[in-house]
Write a structure and sequence with these properties.
The protein is 74% helix and 2% strand. A two-stranded antiparallel ribbon has the order 1-2. α5 runs antiparallel to α6. It is elongated and about 90 Å long. The two termini are 12 Å apart.
């Protein structure tokens, strides 16, 4: 049996993963600045004497601090260029959207239910309009295609458990669709 969507262990684990992702940018900036400062400093340290000081602070410390701040500002500048000048993030979002079938041509089960109910309402309100009836036929085919996806199977299985009663035969789907989904899930479980 799969873990419920409210599984405390899954939620805790995903929260920790999210925290790691969020802190990654700050930590990587600090590591970049530190690493590059030490790499550059190793090439420059022979240029001054061991006892040199600048306002009472050893010159090597001053140079390392300047390098650190310089690298830090340079990395932030690259981020600013990425955001304000090149605006790559906009194109990145376009690519993400184009590659996501659920944002382009597929319907999630929830979306399929909403669109299915809307189609039925529009069909009932415009019974004399042949063009709208044809559009509703097309939308009904689109919604029905969702019921053939594995994500719809999972929705039925999980909602049966969560709500404590079986998902009813949804009237906007072809007759017997939910029953076929349950049969398909039983066959998959028997194969395992």
């Amino acid at each position: 049996m799969s873990a419920s969507p409210d599984s405390p262990s899954k939620k805790w684990l995903m929260r920790q993963f999210w925290r790691l992702q969020q802190s990654q940018a700050v930590i990587s900036l600090l590591f970049w600045a530190t690493t590059l400062t030490l790499l550059i400093y190793a090439r420059l340290e022979h240029r001054w004497q061991a006892g040199d000081e600048y306002y009472g602070i050893p010159t090597s410390y001053v140079v390392m601090m300047i390098l650190y701040v310089g690298v830090f500002v340079f990395v932030l500048f690259i981020g600013w260029l990425y955001d304000k000048i090149f605006q790559f993030w906009k194109e990145h979002q376009n690519v993400v959207l184009e590659r996501n079938p659920w944002a382009t041509y597929q319907l999630t089960p929830r979306d399929a239910m909403i669109v299915g109910y809307l189609s039925k309402l529009i069909r009932a309100q415009n019974q004399d309009d042949e063009r709208i009836q044809k559009e509703c036929d097309w939308v009904d085919k689109w919604v029905s295609a969702t019921a053939e996806l594995e994500v719809f199977d999972r929705m039925v299985k999980e909602l049966d458990v969560i709500l404590g009663e079986p998902v009813p035969e949804l009237h906007f789907l072809p007759e017997g669709t939910v029953s076929r989904v349950r049969k398909r899930m039983e066959n998959k479980e028997d194969e395992l």
